[in-house]
Amino acid sequence: MKYFAVLIFVIFSYISIYSDELPKDLMMGDDYTYVIRMKNGDVLTGSIVEFKNNPERGEGFRFQMQIGTATVYADQIKEIKLKEDNYRHDSRVFLLPTAKAIKNNHYLGSFELLFFNAGIGITDYVSIMIGRSVLPYINGSDQITNFDAKVTFYDQQFDDYDGGIALAVGTNLAFINDNNRLIHGYGAITFTGAKSRLTGNIFYKAGSADYYDVRFKDELLDLQYADGAFGVGLGVDTRIDGWHGVHVIGELWNNDVEKPTNTAVLLGVRLCNTEFSSDFGFAFSTAPFFAPFVSFAWTMF
Questions:
Q1: pLDDT tens per residue, range 60-98
Q2: d(CA 103, CA 272)
Q3: Are 102 and 118 in contact (CB under 8 A)?
Q4: What is the pTM of this model?
Q5: Which residue of 42, 122, 245, 299 pairs with 38 in a disulfide if CB–CB is 3.0 to 4.6 A?
Q6: Do the beta carbons of residue 225 and residue 214 sit within 8 Å?
Q7: How far is CA 224 from the centre of its chain?
Q8: Cα torsion through 40, 76, 18, 57, rounded to 10
Q9: Are 255 and 231 in contact (CB under 8 A)?
């Protein structure tokens, strides 16, 4: 696609800027647990007990952790987030978009090492994702391109217990070869608990054909996907207790609820920290079909 390079340039031109001033919305007290990513790579978890202003070092605060108290200054901080916002990969399960916004967790990713993608958050509400395949020996006009835009219009933490709910709507435009266009609109809901996130997704195929001739070099495939079809997706992302940065992820897809056989399941493990995630697992379908999958993401900012 001739506009792909322009879109990639826009994504990487949007850069999060960290200053030597503290965010104005930081709160003191045990009710507010923060996770700090330091510029030296350390990660601290705790609460703010006192704000400070040093004539030489500038703004800072005393930070209470399990191992003791430390004074942290703004010029040492790369990022500070509330603990519930610290997991930087919650805008997606594997392929399934959740209702959570990307925010400033911009990322570069690779699916199966042959499909590169990028995601960017614009404010706390709008998320943009774009991807392009690099299948070897395949003409550029026969590659796969994907563009997704999502608006998270509601994201609220529960008052009574650890967790929350988010709601989003979005649209997806995909090209399987340059001449095969697929358009979807979707809605998503994500429930967040202390360890797990459960996402439900319903999508509608609109404004495109029922039959497609898909070409990959010398292979020509017939694809049938009825216009007006409703599909559903379910996703789960659960952190394993005692295993830092290890999650179990799973997805179930059906692209046409009138055809139960059009169902696929993905099960895998995610290894992650605040900068990287690596997904490994297997995909199954009623076709029948069985294949391993891998995915990598780098939250570079």
A1: 999 999 889 999 999 999 888 887 677 889 999 998 999
A2: 18
A3: no
A4: 0.78
A5: 42
A6: no
A7: 29
A8: -150
A9: yes
